[in-house]
Amino acid sequence: MALRADPDGPAVTLDLTGETSPYPFFQYMRRTEPVWHGALMDHTQVPPELKPNDEWVLFGYDGVFQAFRDDRVFSSAAYDKTIGLVMGHTILAMGGKEHHDHRNLVAKAFRATALERWEPSAIAPICTQLVDEIKNDGGADLVKAVTFEFPTRIIATLLGLPRDDLDLFRRLSFDLISIPTDIMAGLNAAAELHDYFLDQVEQRRHTPTDDIIGDLVAAEIDGKKLTDEAIIAFLRLLLPAGLETTYRSSGNLLYLLLTHPEQLAMVYHDRSLIPVAIEEGLRFETPLTMVTRTTTEEVDIGGKTIPPDAQVDLCMASANRDESRWTDPNTFDIRRPRQAHIAFAGGIHMCLGMHLARLETRVMLNSLFDRVQDLAFVVDDGTGAESRIVGLTFRSPNKLPVTFSPAA
Ligand code: HEM
């Protein structure tokens, strides 16, 4: 199914299956209709009562930035009616004072300085172990062997879940994330996770622990603590927020480095370049391409007037290639001058886990580069299916076949 940008204009289409790149469509829209009265969805199957009132998409950096900053007019409260059905009332749907108070309570555990303690004790050993398992094999699919696996193991360890529960936790996380395609599996996982996390919270109310659930149980501001339900809603949100995005972004970065071998060599030999490579990877192939807001009142943006109660998609992937901000934005180049991207959103809901995502990816790359050499992309792995980055809302490589030898 493809969406035509302009029925009377050139044949620029958006492949709604995500099989082909959306970037030519985004570029066309940025240049012609950066504030577009339209939808990036196929609504033919949606019953009329469930169709949004009015739909708009923001493609340019300035518009997306403005909408993230103006959280009163571009409200995220509608998350309660979507992901809220399985996760409860989460921080993402909150605004104003409620969001401010809640975020203050949970933010401490995710500060860059608070996360440092996890690097030697949890994150590095997990990444090392995963690479050790494959380093003598001559090659591997890095999606299966590394990128899909490390964020789950890391978050389970940081939360302080028992090692024996990893398989259960992995299954429930996967089922919860599958909710758009398998609603019953998602609902059952949400209920099971509720009971599972409640038990973990109760244990920590009796015996405090040095882990993220322990931090959340102990968190207190002005004598106020998080309730059990608030902690559980937050923990359930961490699964899609923290797992799906990080596994995709690290896969995208590896794909981009493997398909730009001269840049891979630069980063391999000079590890101080890893942080800039991570940022350029997030800009160039944003793992979560868009999020949605609802207008609470009429608003002027980019010369257009959006009415109240309209659904507005903020297309961060398009904003991250805005030519008014980046020279030659369709080129992946870790040497480009530094300029903040918007992959982690902005404003009050700016990603709480961004320091963790960066830390995990840096440690994963270092572990890989320390243990293998001559890393090369396998263009034809004999399956007939090309390895490439796919997806519309979420984007990542379908596989990453590589060859290597153990580092000397
Ligand atoms: C590369 C990886 C990641 C990307 C690209 C990413 C992206 C985002 C974006 C775009 C938002 C805003 C959503 C919206 O406003 O509708 C967000 C919020 C959030 N993210 Fe991330 N995220 C990543 C990793 C993580 C990790 C590792 C965690 C935690 C384990 C996390 C936890 C959160 C939370 C809790 C929020 C809600 C913050 C709030 O509402 O105040 N994220 N993230």
From TrEMBL:
GO terms for molecular function: heme binding; iron ion binding; monooxygenase activity; oxidoreductase activity, acting on paired donors, with incorporation or reduction of molecular oxygen. SUPFAM superfamilies: Cytochrome P450. Pfam families: p450. It comes from the Bacteria. Keywords: Heme, Iron, Metal-binding, Monooxygenase, Oxidoreductase. Coiled coil: none annotated. CDD domains: P450_pinF1-like. Its cofactor is heme. The keyword Metal-binding applies. InterPro entries: Cyt_P450 (IPR001128), Cyt_P450_B (IPR002397), Cyt_P450_sf (IPR036396). Belongs to the cytochrome P450 family. PANTHER family: P450, PUTATIVE (EUROFUNG)-RELATED (PTHR46696), PULCHERRIMINIC ACID SYNTHASE (PTHR46696:SF3). This is Cytochrome P450. It comes from Mycobacterium spongiae. The lineage of its organism: Bacteria, Bacillati, Actinomycetota, Actinomycetes, Mycobacteriales.
